[in-house]
Amino acid sequence: MITVALPKGALLGDSIALFRSLGLDFSGFLDKANRQLQISDPTGTAQALLVRAQDVPVYVEYGQAQVGIVGYDVLREKHPNVAHLADLGFGRCRLSVAVKASSPYRSALDLPAHSRVASKFVNCAKEYFQSIDLPVEIVPLYGSVELGPITGMSEAIVDLVSTGTTLRENNLIELEVLYQSTARLIAHPLSYRLNSDGLQPLVAQIRQQTAAAVAV
Amino acid sequence: MITVALPKGALLGDSIALFRSLGLDFSGFLDKANRQLQISDPTGTAQALLVRAQDVPVYVEYGQAQVGIVGYDVLREKHPNVAHLADLGFGRCRLSVAVKASSPYRSALDLPAHSRVASKFVNCAKEYFQSIDLPVEIVPLYGSVELGPITGMSEAIVDLVSTGTTLRENNLIELEVLYQSTARLIAHPLSYRLNSDGLQPLVAQIRQQTAAAVAV
């Protein structure tokens, strides 16, 4: 039986819709009263795990799930050892550098050397500032990164932006886009190569479905 | 003006009650409709930041908040450079090693060498298994650590236990307690030593209040 790792949060609804279009029903996870983290499709052909977005690649890497859906942002930050199989097109957002609108900075290179940059994406932020050869101090945060510039703890942030509402509400402006992110289909490399539990036909179906959705 | 960093989640209610008993009202954070992360006490003598538990020591370390409330578990895991000023007594829980009840293991030393141990407390787990000289592979997770043994990804977990309900619901049993945790009052070391914004009298009041509560 195939096990699928699904991410809690923003990507869950579209992920469940995708599997439903293939005849696999994991909609039990959308029930607010649900406390189960592991459910089976009613047809008994697949099961799903509901885990934190950052944990999806862990379950896939260790082979507890043969496939998973996760944002490109998580893959870029963690570099897990998983096969990247398809861009699913949904969950579009971008990782950006932002500063206070009232600051004098209008590009990342305007930031003074040794500025503080608050981020949940410590590795991506480090890589980016190294690539523009600007030495900065990354302040690792777990949530509400926008508080960094508001409190004066950091000059800038590196954070995910989708609609831009959080930035606007906090009088922050985007300076640079590090990369665009969308939901990705990942798989355990060996399971995929060995076609365990009929993984390859499932992946082929998802790719077809996704290509069709993109074409519309 | 003193700035206080308060942790979202389990410790928030008791933290706000503590400051209310000192005449500082941050109860706006308890309003479910509240979206503000920074509020002032109505008397205008102090303000509070609402941040993730793991971020409390960061705001205190960088001096954006002079004091903060955070669980001992976060201090043990991150070793931030802050002054530990008082044990506040509430938010009691423990960091424990747990395994499936159906497993043959009845103490941590029964675990086979190179077992996998899933945990959000990577550093604490590493330290503990080093102290008993048992080489294990720590699998870092962000949430729902109990899924580790359920899916067979890990033999054991190291996780916070308060009532034990999560363990029981998932047929897991506790083998060892690494340490007990409670909420702690922390401060920016220099601000405390220099008594900036009258920090020392506030801390003295909190200590008195806490001692009184413990005596009851």
Summary, kept brief:
Chains A, B: This is ATP phosphoribosyltransferase. The structure is a homodimer of 216-residue chains. Chain A is an alpha/beta fold and 216 residues long.
Please characterize this protein's 3D structure:
The structure is a homodimer of 216-residue chains. Chain A has 216 residues and is an alpha/beta fold. The first copy, chain A, folds into two domains: 2-91 and 182-215, D-Maltodextrin-Binding Protein, domain 2 (3-Layer(aba) Sandwich); 93-180, D-Maltodextrin-Binding Protein, domain 2 (3-Layer(aba) Sandwich), CATH 3.40.190.10. Chain A is 31% helix and 29% strand. Chain A has helices at residues 12-21, 56-61, 72-78, 122-131, 147-151, 165-169, 189-194, 199-215; strands at residues 2-7, 38-40, 46-51, 67-71, 83-87, 93-100, 116-119, 137-140, 156-161, 172-181, 183-187. Chain A has a six-stranded mixed beta sheet with strand order 2-3-1-4-11-5. A five-stranded mixed beta sheet of chain A has the order 8-7-9-6-10. In chain A, a hairpin with a 5-residue loop joins strand 2 (38-40) and strand 3 (46-51). The longest helix of chain A has 17 residues, at 199-215. The radius of gyration of chain A is 19 Å and the shape is elongated. The relative contact order of chain A is 0.19. The mean pLDDT of chain A is 95. The interface between A and B is medium-sized, with 27 and 27 residues.
Helix content of chain A: 25-40%
The biggest chain-chain interface is: A-B, 27 and 27 residues
Give me the CATH fold name of the largest domain in chain A: D-Maltodextrin-Binding Protein, domain 2
What's the name of the CATH homologous superfamily of the largest domain in chain A?
Answer: Periplasmic binding protein-like II
What is the alpha-carbon Rg of chain A in Å?
19 Å
Strands of chain A, total number = 11
Q: Tell me, briefly, the overall form of chain A.
A: elongated
